[in-house]
Design a protein that fits this description.
The protein is an alpha/beta fold. It folds into 4 domains: 3-84; 90-192, 2-Layer Sandwich (Beta-Lactamase); 206-363, Alpha-Beta Plaits (2-Layer Sandwich), CATH 3.30.70.270; 382-644, Alpha-Beta Barrel (TIM Barrel), CATH 3.20.20.450. 52% of the residues lie in helices and 19% in strands. The chain contains 25 helices and 21 strands. The strands form 4 sheets. Strands 13-14-16-17-18-19-20-21 form an 8-stranded mixed beta barrel, surrounded by 4 helices. Strands 2-1-5-4-3 form a 5-stranded antiparallel beta sheet, sandwiched between helices. The protein has a 5-stranded mixed beta sheet with strand order 7-8-6-11-12, sandwiched between helices. Bound molecules: ligand C2E and calcium ion (2 copies). Ligand C2E binds next to strand 14, helix 14 and strand 18.
Length: 647
């Protein structure tokens, strides 16, 4: 009992001993209870302390565990990032679909290749994505087959697709035991496009985009196989533009190119879908007409082709009219093999050209003979040039009146150099029949140069002997187009060390008409260098007064066709007379060529013609014989009154 409580009890006499004992018992009981309580508390405290310690230990373990888990989570998330980055930086599109059809993984490249956004793909199933792929592919069946291939575990498949968005995709698909269905795709558009370009270039003409010779040959081979099987006919048309070289050489290649593009466009419009139009050379095209039932079909098409081309073409503010010559060979009559058909169409084309151009010609066996002759002529001409068999002859031009103090009536005025190709059995091949072969065979440059050199050597020889005999050389239109040919002429004259007044040139109207600007430039160059210019064969061409007036031409030669019938045809008389008066008005020297009779000469003299040339005055002769004309006394004696006695 608490001492204070005991003291209180002791000091209270009214409390009975009984009560006092009861209280004391009670208090003792309380004491015991307290005691017990204290004991229990003690026990609890110690047990609590024990639990706290255990808890703390556990906590520490837990914390450690959590830490370890966080670290492994970090590591996991890092490797996930690495994996993602790797996947996304791959150039191949990757898509993984689980076996339950759920979308497991994809990379950015996949979205890019299939034109998808992350929003669009999220939530889609494998089946939905496959349907979407099918909507893009041009070959759904192939895609389905590929899907089938990977149904079985371990299955894999590799295919290539052209997608509607223009992409070429290479798709590799496989079935993975745990991952599911893995689709990998690679963009091979660039590779395929490059391949396509290369193969296009191999089979097409780069300028016009038309099939080229290689493709034509394939088509031709196919056409032969097909025609053999079906017993059908087909036609091969060889089309060559007329005068294209002139345009190309004089107006530049860019204009020439534009013209070719326009021509190919026009030709393409005419042919039928089953036909082939190919460009096989500079200005050469071939039309392969399949399944021809009747000859007339070809005829009609050839006519349409020509008409279509003949419409004026406007280019760079100029207007061109371009014609074409077409040669036609038919399968099987004109050949059963590609090579023979091509050759025969080509032969027929040459005939069309010879017939005056802008027309077509069917192949005939007689054309072949002509072509063979022509080829052998070309070969021998080449040989003749190389072995120096060609010769220059000289025909005098004589003064019909007093042209100047030194060139008086009956005097030799000058010579015209004329090319001669001696035949083995005597006589000559006419230059008229071989000059154009030389032009076509690309020999005219060399031949022209040989003529110039020969004429210069001859003029120098006579000059050194004391004669001032001018020699005129004929310039062919094709030669006129050779770049810098005029400078070459002037240079050669200088190198030969002779006065330029010893050489003159004869050009024709057709040459002027091809390109007036270029012609003017060249002719002015000649004039500056003191070279005299004759306009040959006047009256046969366009005879435009305009260029006569504006170009530096010194003399016109009345074509021999007008001279021929002078004594009988009043029309020719009128033409000759008016050419003479026209030339006089323009201050030009007038030459009449092809004078064979005294009557012709009389008429021309009466009408004031300046110079005469023709058999009446003298045939073309070799240099040695020509030298006799250089003695003025002889000439005075022979001319006018009597023709020269040369030959
Ligand atoms: P061209 O320039 O008109 O030459 C005149 C032609 O008329 C020459 O024929 C000549 O022999 C001939 N001829 C001369 N007088 C008479 C005559 O009284 N009557 C007749 N019927 N004919 C006469 P060729 O020599 O056969 O030459 C023919 C054409 O060949 C020439 O016509 C010319 O265009 C060309 N040619 C001749 N030589 C050359 C040359 O060296 N270079 C070039 N580019 N062409 C030439
Ligand atoms: Ca001439
Ligand atoms: Ca002439």
């Amino acid at each position: 009992m608490h001492p204070r409580l005991k003291q209180q009890l002791d000091q209270s006499p009214q409390i009975s001993d009984e009560t006092r004992a009861a209280i004391a018992d009670f208090i003792a009981a309380v004491n015991t209870t307290y005691q017990e309580h204290d004991n229990a508390k003690q026990e609890l405290t110690s047990s609590l302390e024990q639990s706290a310690r255990t808890l703390m230990d556990r906590n520490a373990v837990l914390t450690r565990n959590l830490e370890a888990q966080r670290e492994s989570q970090q590591r996991l998330s890092h490797s996930y990032d690495v994996l993602n980055a790797t996947l996304n930086s791959s150039n191949e599109g990757v898509l993984v679909i689980g076996k339950d059809d759920a979308l497991i993984a994809y990379n950015e490249r996949y979205l890019d290749l299939l034109d998808l956004t992350p929003d669009q793909i999220s939530g889609l199933t494998g089946t939905e994505l496959f349907k979407y792929s099918c909507s893009l592919s041009t070959d759904v069946d192939k895609l389905r087959a590929q899907l089938k291939d990977i149904r079985e575990p371990g299955g894999s498949s590799f295919e290539e697709y052209r997608f509607l968005n223009g992409r070429w995709l290479e798709i590799y698909a496989r079935h993975h035991e745990t991952a599911g269905y893995i689709w990998m795709m690679r963009d091979i558009t660039e590779v395929r496009e490059k391949e396509a370009t290369i193969s296009f270039q191999a089979y097409h003409d780069s300028l016009t985009g038309l099939p080229n010779r290689v493709q034509l040959q394939q088509k031709l081979a196919d056409a032969i196989v097909e025609a053999k099987k079906s017993h059908k006919r087909f036609a091969l048309c060889y089309l060559d533009l007329d005068g294209f070289k002139t345009i190309n050489d004089s107006l530049g290649h860019s204009t020439g190119d534009k013209l070719l593009i326009e021509v190919s466009k026009r030709l393409s419009e005419v042919i039928r879908p089953e036909d082939t139009l190919a460009r096989v050379g500079g200005d050469e095209f071939i039309v392969l007409l399949n399944h021809i039932d009747h000859h007339d079909e070809v005829l009609q098409l050839a006519e349409t082709l020509l008409l279509k081309l003949y419409d004026p073409i406007r280019l760079d503010n100029r207007e061109f009219v371009i014609g074409a010559s077409i040669g036609i060979a038919l399968y099987p009559t004109d050949g059963e093999e590609a090579g023979i058909l091509m050759r025969n169409a080509d032969i027929a084309m040459y005939r069309a050209k010879a017939n005056g151009k802008n027309c077509f010609h069917f192949f005939t066996p007689s054309l072949e003979r002509i072509a063979v002759q022509r080829m052998s002529l070309e070969t021998s001409l080449r040989r003749a040039l190389e072995s120096n068999q060609l010769e220059l002859y000289y025909q005098p031009k004589v003064c019909m009146r007093d042209v100047s103090d030194s060139l008086r009536t009956g005097h030799l005025h000058s010579f015209e150099a004329l090319l001669r190709w001696p035949k083995a059995n005597g006589g000559f091949v006419s230059p008229e029949s071989f000059i154009h072969i030389a032009e076509d065979a690309g020999m005219i440059g060399r031949i022209g140069f040989w003529i110039l050199e020969q004429a210069c050597l001859q003029a120098r020889d006579w000059y050194q002997k004391g004669y001032h005999a001018n020699i005129s050389i004929n310039i062919s239109p094709r030669q006129f187009l050779i770049p810098n040919f005029h400078q070459e002429i002037v240079r050669t004259i200088h190198e030969m060390n002779i006065p330029p007044s010893l050489i003159s040139i004869e050009i024709t109207e057709s040459l002027l008409m091809q390109d007036l600007t270029h012609a003017r430039h060249v002719l002015e160059y000649f004039r500056e260098h003191g070279i005299f210019i004759y306009l040959d064969d006047f009256g046969t061409g366009f005879s435009s007064l305009n260029y006569l007036k504006t170009l530096p031409i010194d003399s016109i030669k009345i074509d021999r066709t007008f001279v021929k019938d002078l004594s009988s045809s009043t029309a020719d008389q009128a033409i000759a007379a008016s050419i003479i008066s026209l030339g006089k008005n323009l201050d030009m020297l007038i030459v009449a060529e092809g004078i064979e009779t005294a009557e012709q000469a009389d008429f021309l003299i009466r009408n004031g013609c300046d110079l005469a040339q023709g058999f009446y005055y003298g045939h073309p002769v070799c240099a040695e014989q020509a030298e006799q004309y250089l003695h003025p006394d002889d000439i005075l004696h022979h001319a006018i009154a009597k023709p020269f006695s040369a030959e």
